[in-house]
């Protein structure tokens, strides 16, 4: 696909020089709506990353296995899949503002459903709450991403989306801190084995501990529900420039699907996005189980590594956004996919005793050795460093896949890319299933390490997509 065809639809605009284009990444007249909609990126980032550690938390609280606990992610990302295309059709029929309001309403409702879920002490009710919540997130992402792309010249759309997406991990970091300090750190310290034993001797005492732990989980989600409800009120009374004119009387869904299905770069982008989301969720969800099973860390200490990974992700996002000025998106995507694969190999194959001895107090990042010495575990360091390689991928794949689509096709095309978030629905339960094979060993690899082979598969698919995009880019340049 040609890289310069995105400028063709706006023939009425005056010709601009490259310097003028770069100065109009975010036009001044559209700065306020850009800021407000970009804030939504932080809201769904918060939801994503307060939820990832809950897989390990529910496993211990409710005494379920890795596969069952990973159904949290299946329900969470299942909402994205289920609502992606309905959200896009709704957007085509109505407008950006209305779609954002529906998304915020479902988001707040899902969060508040945690209150009856905690009271019922039923895992299935929690899963339903996650599903409703992410039906709202699907509306928000299906709407916010193309709206950000439309807020300025098409030539700078990918840079604009990368910049907006850079604020998503800021919400993620907040969610991670809340998960560590207000949830994981406050859960009862009883191990899974101790809980099982207590359930046999005193079921009422176990139920009391479980109820207290579930109450700890419910609190932050309840507060989040009220915050999202406040955001709903804010958007209800604000105006979004360019929203009303996007109403569509004739949807022509069949014609749009036909055009999209014949667009090879778009279809490949949807596939690559599914594998990207899969590897992201696996790394950020199961880093806790990796730390527990490989290094004997507590959940709270393991979450510190998750936070370190997100800080790496945030920093790298800004760096990679800058590098896009000099390197083709596909080329950088391929290079980062290669780096991610190498780091996953390190997490899988490096002996767990390999590390740098450090005589510091245990900050949650070090592992206790002998004689009061702590060492830095290279395996965990590799998983955390993978986030630097992943930081560019979602918005870049998104921008490449939608390049050249007109405004109406981009709305439905956006839904396909949000539907691809379903990679988070499929891959985590599969990895959890592999982890549950306790008797499986392959040399130095236990089932936890072997499960990360799924991450290698994902990076291989992203590498192939990046190389193809890079080669086509240069072939048509």
Provide a short characterization of the protein structure.
The chain is mainly α and 477 residues long.
Tell me roughly what share of residues is in helical segments.
Answer: over 70%
How many β-strand stretches? 5
- Can you tell me the overall shape? globular
CATH class: Mainly Alpha
Strand content: under 5%
How many domains in all?
A: 1
If helices are DSSP runs of H or I spanning 4 or more residues, what is the number of helices? 22
* CATH T-level topology: Growth Hormone, Chain: A
Going by CATH, what is the homologous superfamily? Answer: MFS general substrate transporter like domains
Largest sheet: 3 strands, antiparallel
Please state how the strands of the largest beta sheet are arranged side by side. Answer: 1-3-2
How far apart, in Å, are the first and last alpha carbons? 10 Å
Question: Architecture in CATH?
Answer: Up-down Bundle
* Class per helix and strand makeup: mainly alpha
Overall pLDDT score: 84
What's the gyration radius in Å?
23 Å
Query: Unreliable segments (pLDDT under 50, ≥5 consecutive)?
Result: 1-23, 245-249
Query: What is the ordering of alpha helices and beta strands?
Result: HHHHHHHHHHHHHHHHEEEHHHHEEHH
